[in-house]
Amino acid sequence: MGTSAGTLDSPDADAKIRCSDRSRAAALSPIGTAGTQDGFVLVEMPLPWPRDVGRTPEGVALAPLLAPRRHRLQAVVPADPAAPPQERGVILHSRPPGPGFNGYRRLRGRVGASLTATVAALLEAAADPAPSEFDAPGVDVLVCTHGTRDSCCGRRGAALAVRAADVPGAEVRRTSHLGGHRFAPTFLVLPQGTAWGYADPELVTKVVRREVPFGEVAEHYRGCTGLDGPQVQALELEVLRKVGWSLLDVPRTGTFDGTWADLSWREDGQTVIWAADVRAGRAVPMPRCMEPATPDGGSETEWDVTAVYRCQ
User: Fold this and answer.
1) What CDD domains does the annotation carry (predicted)?
2) CA–CA–CA angle 215, 175, 173 (5° rounding)
């Protein structure tokens, strides 16, 4: 995946190594690092963004609305930088009510006179299964380019966003921190909620258009943000290897207990269940970006998935 392990041999290089270079050198698996969210609110905010967009006036105003609903704020670069603040776009991806996950509902509005009022209206519409004037089907590809949060995303993510800007069938947007900067460049596909790492423009196209068998992109998969917990995300990866892209289209539910994970959905009037043993695997030393590895530094744990089988 690019950087060779030899890059880490020099003490001088080690003191300045980027986290994404270290991850590539260690062939660190990204699966299970997607996080879990019931929704995302995309708000157009001009650059530069602070390290934490939650500390912006927009973030502070929206926190009481979003935190209880487990919705995440994502700043995105305005589509029209010259547009006045009230004309900037707001997109909500919100998990529909009911069990199972096969994608968020996408709604769209404008900031208008009050960003808080606009987001509240979008959330209210999303909670009602009836059609809404805000419904706006479409695909958003969010590429993390948040350089003030992590230099790897600032360098690699910004380059990816430029090179992948014209991917057919999706709107590619530069966004704030998505997590997983050690796998930079990273991107998130909404409404399907799939997160990816070690990306390049070809990967973005393959994922959006599903042009290749899932197995060809499996090593880039971080997991689905609509599934709870890294263990279930790790199991889903193995099921995707066997079932293919169509799995992302069915409402699926995952659970984890002890070391046992399962993933289930309805198919032809019956419940399909896949299960596996999922345990913590290799722990890879992973200090902060541009800092040397130390004995008491941080680490990243991979997930070992074994005994995968279909129960029903």
Assistant:
1) TRX_Fd_Sucrase
2) 70
Contact between 3 and 21 (Cβ < 8 Å): yes
Mean pLDDT of 246-250: 97
Phi-psi region of 200 (alpha: psi -120 to 50; beta: other; left: phi over 0): beta
What does R_g of the chain's alpha carbons equal in angstroms? Answer: 20
Are 282 and 301 in contact by the 8 Å Cβ rule? The answer is yes
Burial 188-216 (b: 16+ CB within 10 A, else e): bbbbbbbbbbbbbbebbbbbbeeeeebee
* pLDDT tens digit sequence for 35-87: 999 999 999 999 999 999 999 999 999 999 999 999 999 999 999 999 999 99
Is residue 132 classed exposed, middle or buried when 0-12, 13-18 and 19+ CB atoms within 10 A define those classes?
Answer: middle
Q: How confident is the model at residue 295, as a pLDDT?
A: 60
Q: Please write the tens of the pLDDT for every residue from 199-244.
A: 999 999 999 999 899 999 999 999 999 999 999 999 999 999 999 9
CATH fold for domain 1-226: Glutaredoxin (3.40.30)
| pTM score, whole prediction | 0.92
Q: 260-267 and 171-175 as β-strands: parallel, antiparallel, unpaired?
A: unpaired
31 neighbors 303 (Cβ within 8 angstroms):
yes
Instruction: Identify the helix (H) or strand (E) that includes residue 281.
Output: strand 270-285
